[in-house]
Amino acid sequence: MSQTEVARMKSPLVPLATLIGREIRGEKVQEPYLKYGQAALAKKGEDYFLIKPDCQRIHANPSTSFSVFAIFDGHNGNSAAIYAKETLLDNVLSAIPQGSSRDEWLQALPRALVAGFVKTDIEFQQKGETSGTTVTFVVIDGWTVTVASVGDSRCILDTQGGVVSLLTVDHRLEENEEERERVTASGGEVGRLNVFGGSEVGPLRCWPGGLCLSRSIGDTDVGEFIVPVPHVKQVKLSNAGGRLIIASDGIWDALSSDMAAKSCRGLPAELAAKLVVKEALRSRGLKDDTTCVVVDIIPSDRPVLPPTPRKKQSMLTSLIFGKKSQNGSKTNKLSAVGVVEELFEEGSAMLAERLGKDIPLDANSGIFRCAVCQVDQPQSEGLSVNSGPFFSPSSKPWEGPFLCTTCRKKKDAMEGKRMSTPTVAL
Questions:
Q1: pLDDT digits 0-9 by tens, 407-416
Q2: How far is CA 287 from CA 73, 108, 273, in A?
Q3: What domains are there in the chain, each with its CATH number?
Q4: What does each C-alpha distance from 281 to 41, 42, 152, 247, 274 come to in angstroms?
Q5: Of 183, 361, 391, 418, which is most buried by a Cβ count within 10 Å?
């Protein structure tokens, strides 16, 4: 390491008052750069990952760059994981209006992630295959991190303050009471595996199919109450940076979030990913595919993340996130060293709540764009705002955006309004 790099590593942190003053005065804060690493051990060959650090909102315009990191943990085969890896990003981007400014793009991203996940699921199920996959999908644009997830893979954030924060929600039926209630209300059954003698063993599962998860992409043979609608969280880091650890459940079944973060602090991202996998293997053995991606979001004036203090957490830990925004609206708190500003969080499985109430295109033309598949169709071919009760006099009017016939049927099946007929693999 050169003397210049050593000197830069030893340079003091910018005082908090200075950072806040810069933001108040609107001074330009330099964009961070990323360093990342990946490690994996295969047991079944159903884990896949995506690393795309050079995406652009506007083609051939480097100033519009953003990065994508994702993990796909397949089950009952690998076809759903492969398909999601190849198509999900394009489906998400197609749901964001062209020509958006950066702020508009970031604001539209949570809804586009919902549309992209659902579209990918519809397309894959039309292939007639029965595998499924969890997805943890991370978009990094400057200091803003947006995470969308279904299933039990996980993304954690380790900040300069030494506090580890979970950016995803586990959709395991065993651990998520709200999801159990949603599945049963939509027509599924939740219970453990019955064995000879009437004893129940193992984790809670959804029947038919016996899946332990309440959300995934694929799983045609289980039932459409297993939904692809992701939990989405969007945060803004301070310009002290931070570390993301994205991993499949092979890691989290062996390590807690704190254990994973502490096991690799102070190491470069590539070595950190390998060490997390090694620690999980040492703790539990190789019982499942084990994949980890580590991403360091580093201030541009530093070669590496500053070392994280190993102090005990104090009452200031509660400041790691600003007050949760209401209805997905933005908060106005300023970022500070080691503090994260929460911009958006929503986990509802209801499309009416996730896609908003916008009516796309010109309502006078009679042509509307489906909010999920982005296909233009006449209003008569779908379901749109204020279309009135659809199922019965007791049904509420649809208050979401326009959906084409195919996407409308998908919505109805997910909400238990139209019972799906799963294809059971023999």
A1: 999 999 998 8
A2: 14, 39, 18
A3: 30-171+228-346 (3.60.40.10), 352-426 (no CATH)
A4: 9, 11, 18, 13, 11
A5: 183
